[in-house]
Predict the structure.
Amino acid sequence: MHEIGIANSVLDASVAECARRSGVKLTRIGVRIGVLAGVDIEALRFAFEALTKDTELEQVGIEIQSCPRRNRCLDCEEEFVSELYTEPCPKCASEHVILTGGEELDLAFIEVEEP
Amino acid sequence: MTVIPMERKVLSENQRIAISLRKRFAEKGILCLNLISSPGSGKTMLLEKTLAGLPPEERVAVLTGDLQTENDAKRLAQYGFPVQQITTGGVCHLDGSMVERSLERWSLDDIDLLIIENVGNLVCPSSYDLGEEAKIVLLSVTEGEDKPLKYPSIFAKSELLILTKMDLLPYVPFNLEQARANAQSVHPGMEMIEVSAMTGAGMDAWREWLVRRRELILSRSTRA
């Protein structure tokens, strides 16, 4: 529901980075969104579209990488990907499992055209 | 074409504010709690009964967030403790800057317990750190017992689950055992309290939880 705000922050940070490198033209933005980040990827795409329509950013490509929930077993150190919620370790069945990924809400990279 | 790695959190500005708030709370020995639930799960009612049961010398303050209206602040203000409404004007969550701005109107030296009642929403508030010591999620028995599975992020991030409106349990098809199991599956070891703010049942367990967490903060600040 706050995807507009998130898209806005991403665009602001990308434009600011370009402004520090005179003459470059922003062509692509890459973001990483974890399944636990509370962000709907379709809504985020829509937000980018809505915010850039009829602006100089309209042609900027948005690349959204979805990141799964990753876990580590505290007993046998097994690393594994699971559904949204905690699952026991697939190797040793231990329930001592901690979250190691899935909450990403990151601006990963921007791509620019040099002058 | 040149690719420039950015590798930064989209919410880094909020994170920066949250870290600064957390530091200020720690310096002043303030226990800050962030209450989150769907709309209508009973956050305001729980707070009303909590405030009503506190002695007047208790140094507690409440920030309450909503999209519109000052209704919750009015409900909460009648207990004599400082209350501020944050109206987000359509934004679906509170963020660090809203909390920071509201706190400018209070002296943190006068507060031991700061309760933030977030906007009713199980999704967005989970992404915004407000500098709190703990998030608390409420789930009422008039909702579905599968909410922890549908909204795992907030149940995973909250330290305490308060099951509310327990007095209505005989009249609704809510499966309490299943709700508990669902919460434990997304957050193994999650603390759970069952309350009815209406009848007062379970309120002692909630008050004891608050006292325990206050003591934890105090022991930390005396050690420091």
